[in-house]
Amino acid sequence: MKKVLIVEDSSTVTKILKHLIKQHPDITALFAGSLAEGQALYEQYGDEIFAGIIDLNLPDAPNGEMVDYLLHKELPVIVLTANYQEDRREQLLDKGIVDYIIKESRYSYNYALNLIHRLEKNQTIKILIAEDSRPTRTFIKALLEKHLYQVMEASNGLEALDVLKDNPDIKLLITDYHMPEMDGFDLVRAIRHNVDKSGLVIIGLSGEGKGSLSAKFIKNGANDFLQKPFSHEELYCRVMHNIEELELIEQIQDTANRDYLTNLHNRRYYFDKGEVLYNNAVNNDTPFAVAMIDIDHFKQINDNYGHEAGDKVLVFLAEELRLAFSRFVVARLGGEEFSILMPGLSNEQAFTLLDKFRGMASAMTIDINADDGELLNISLSMGVTNYLHESLDQQLHYADQLLYRAKEAGRNMVVGDEDADE
Q1: What are phi and psi of 126, to 5 degrees?
Q2: pLDDT(55) > 80
Q3: Same domain for 394 and 344?
Q4: Which of 207, 266, 276, 390 has the fewest CB atoms within 10 Å, counting from its CB?
Q5: How many domains does the chain fold into?
Q6: Residues 407 and 271 placed together within one structural domain of the fold
Q7: Same domain as 219, residue 164
Q8: Is the domain of 203 the same as that of 175?
């Protein structure tokens, strides 16, 4: 749970913030009403403090001394103030504050708290700047790092393509128009041959005054455009807006790839991801294990205890599989059937992991009726194969055959390739 230092001398504002903070259970707020109290809290908690929300004018710090103190400690600072002063705002942004927020309404305070979440997410987001001017590149990088983004650099389009190839998890590219080797338009076109707008956000840049440049960038595949010179806040707003739009698309896609009951990946995701893993194994001659898992006598559970109890068993097993095989692709293929894709594991290694999990599962009890504490034990049958066959679908079909051998042999066991060869 991240700690946020909030220094505010107004009892009314503090009361509002304390009420709103209840809607953010992952934030622990440390409240202070003066520079002295704020410094004391920082000295006490130090590195545990993630960011600060600071009133610009305090009784013992009327000129933003608390803000300067925390900036000197290299802490992200969000400034709250009752008075808007353009010169002061520009001065503070130049110093490196995250944002300058006017105390106007509850929305303002909610915005500040939501910005804390944004900063936390930004720590895992990679942004690439493609710009041939070193001073401009350095300036943009410094601004983005104030918002805790991971920033990478390239001096032309060809370098940018190499960086993107080595870092496929880059979320956003900011590219200038005029660059040697490959300009911004050609870079955008090259990227869009392979990556669509939902995979990588591109913001074009130019210092030229032609209005057609923005349209040309966007027509070639950019998501947005910024005219140089731009203000700190314009860059932040454009970047934040596009990142949040990308995250929303990813959230929608993830929901579409999840099983409605267990929240494991579903059949669609399984085969989309599985085809990539299967082809990698074929092309690189590396091991690739595919396992099928089935709950023994699951129909009897539904018949004897009801479908609600059956659903509880499925959810319970799904969570245990997710925790035990977090490195791999785990999916519910339908009913009580689950499958795991394990690239890099030999059949012997996969068999050992599965058999260990099978033993653990048979020793677990599932509470299927909270009212009377009714407990249930389950057992699992599994089949696992490393024979690639002609396709992933065929390999999965063979794993399913091994699963049925486990059923026929008495259930509650794993059958692998060596067992099948006997």
Answers
A1: -95, 135
A2: yes
A3: yes
A4: 390
A5: 3
A6: yes
A7: yes
A8: yes
Asked, for residue 260, whether it belongs to a domain, the answer is no
User: Would you say the C-alpha torsion 365, 366, 369, 373 has a positive or negative sign?
Assistant: positive
How far is C-alpha 327 from the chain's CA centre? 16
91 and 63 within one domain: yes
Q: How far apart are CA 207 and CA 170, in angstroms?
A: 25
For residue 261, tell me if it sits in a domain: no
Q: State mean pLDDT over 384-401.
A: 96
Query: Which domain, by its residues, includes 336?
Result: 267-421
Nearest residue to 54 (alpha-carbon basis) of 4, 89, 120 = 4
Question: How do 126-130 and 150-154 pair as beta strands?
Answer: parallel
10 Å Cβ neighbour count for 136?
A: 16
Q: Are 196 and 223 in contact (CB under 8 A)?
A: no
Instruction: Answer yes or no: do 304 and 354 share one domain.
Output: yes
End of a domain among 192, 224, 255? 255
Q: Check residue 221 and give left, alpha or beta (phi > 0: left; psi -120 to 50: alpha).
A: left
DSSP string covering 224-239: EEEESS--HHHHHHHH
Q: Which CA distances in Å does 77 have to 86, 146, 264, 351?
A: 18, 9, 38, 52
First vs last C-alpha separation in the chain? 54
Whether pTM > 0.85 for this model: the answer is no
Q: What is the pLDDT of residue 368?
A: 76
Backbone angles phi and psi of 257, in degrees to 5 = -100, 10
As a whole number of angstroms, the distance between CA 305 and CA 371 comes to 14
Residue type at position 190: A
The full DSSP string for 241-270 is HHHHHHHHHHHHHHHHTB-TTT-SB-HHHH
For residue 263, the tally of other CB atoms under 10 A from its CB is 15
pLDDT of residue 75: 95
Per residue in 313-332, pLDDT (tens digit) is 999 999 999 999 999 999 99
In three-state secondary structure terms, 107 is helix
Q: Which residues pair with 342 in a beta bridge?
A: 289
Domain finish residue from 62, 92, 120: 120
Q: What is the mean pLDDT of the chain?
A: 93
417 and 276 together in one domain: yes
DSSP letter for 336, please: T
The domain that contains 87 carries what CATH number? Answer: 3.40.50.2300
Average pLDDT over residues 17-28: 92
